[in-house]
Amino acid sequence: MRLFTHAAAGALALAAAALCAPAQAQDWSLEKAAEPLKGTQINVVFLDRPGYRAIIQLLPEFEKKTGIKVNYEIVPYESSREKQVLNFSSNGDLTIALVDLVWIGEFAENGWIVPVEKFTSDPAITDPKLNLDGFFPLLLDAFGSWGGKVYGLPFDNYSGLLFYNQCMLQEAGFDKPPETWQELYETYAPKLTDKAKNRFAFALQSRRGETQSADSFMRVLWPFGGSLLDKEFKSNLLSEESQAGLKFRQDLMQYMPPGIVSYDHAEAVNALAQGQVAMITEWSAFYSTLIDPATSKIVDCLAVAPEPSGPAGRLPALGGFSLAVAAQAPEKEQKASWLFIQWATSEDIARAYVEAGGVSGRKSIYEDADIKAKYKFVEPMVASWQKGVPEFRPRFPAWPAISEIIAEWGTKMMLGEVSTEQGAKEIGTRMEDILAKEGYYDGKKALLQ
């Protein structure tokens, strides 16, 4: 079963068109393209995360060059989808959609976002150096593509990595991080946990919501060979492999801080940064927070490695967002939004974006020797993007409703209110009810996108 679209060929075709279409390619500039759009205002939702703070830092350059005003509102991740859906449903003022990889199906099928082919066919507003092939194919495919079309360009890009305090590991007698989840649990965790001193081996961000469903629950399925759904789109959570992953999470909790079910990304990152925990599996985007002396006490001790392997292999988490033009925006605002999206994800500003704390989706920036040497997260992250990952989170339109169910019962599992078997059964029944109502079992909807 494949839940990621495979739009690589389409992306390459679009890239070729973008490169070849403008007859006056050498004359194109962002400033010239924006001349008819000066004074236009565009609106977008941002998150309080490093990648967004990085682009905000660079915004004056775009606004100065174009005369286009970018209005942004910073909202918590947990309410960002709902806020956008309400805006699109009421024909509001958002001109750009911030699209999580699991929202792409919902946003595209509801007609809330516009395929980029509308804009790449217009040489006046499309940079001849757009080069869609310059993105990691996995990211363009997973974050911005649906139904064989590209809708958005990868902007805030994540790979799951193991961040660890090498000083704490060395004090415990370890000269390298754990290679496997079992090794982390059996060998490392007991020696790195001292509850009397409020020190713990590991923290797994697990707050109820998308953090629970995606960053905690789903993270332990794939390495153990489990999955949310089987090939018939029926629940696979009672399989031996899925149960092994969920039970492992329950066992590992004894080496996590109390109240781990209330930890979001910020709390998990801060626990490592303050020396409370020795290891976390977190998104690559949080590297800049962990090396900032203003927020981290472990700058000199921070090290990064790939996520541990499980019985099914090394299958790291994949997450991230794309920026897409909102269909509700008037034509002028759509063009201005497209110019901003191209600029924000371009190869031209990739270095500045990375140095400001963002994680670019462009391949070329990570080929620079100084970038690889300066940023410890680059090599394990790029390695995880080269070969791809399994369907870490389904991207179909029904995901938001299913995510709420997983968040509820996944939390109950962690709190010990239900067993992993009981929780899996409850999730499976409710999930299949949603998919049945959505038409996934009667041929109304294609299972593969």
TrEMBL record:
Subcellular location: Periplasm
One Gene Ontology cellular component annotation held by this UniProt entry: periplasmic space
Gene3D superfamilies: Periplasmic binding protein-like II (3.40.190.10)
Lineage: superkingdom: Bacteria
Keyword annotations from UniProtKB, A to Z: Periplasm, Signal, Transport
Range of residues in the leader sequence: 1-25
Keyword Ribosomal protein: no
Coiled-coil residue spans: none
InterPro entries: Bact_solute-bd_prot1, SBP
Family from the record: Belongs to the bacterial solute-binding protein 1 family.
UniProt-listed PANTHER family: ABC TRANSPORTER PERIPLASMIC-BINDING PROTEIN YCJN-RELATED (PTHR43649:SF34), ARABINOSE-BINDING PROTEIN-RELATED (PTHR43649)
Listed name of the protein: Sugar ABC transporter
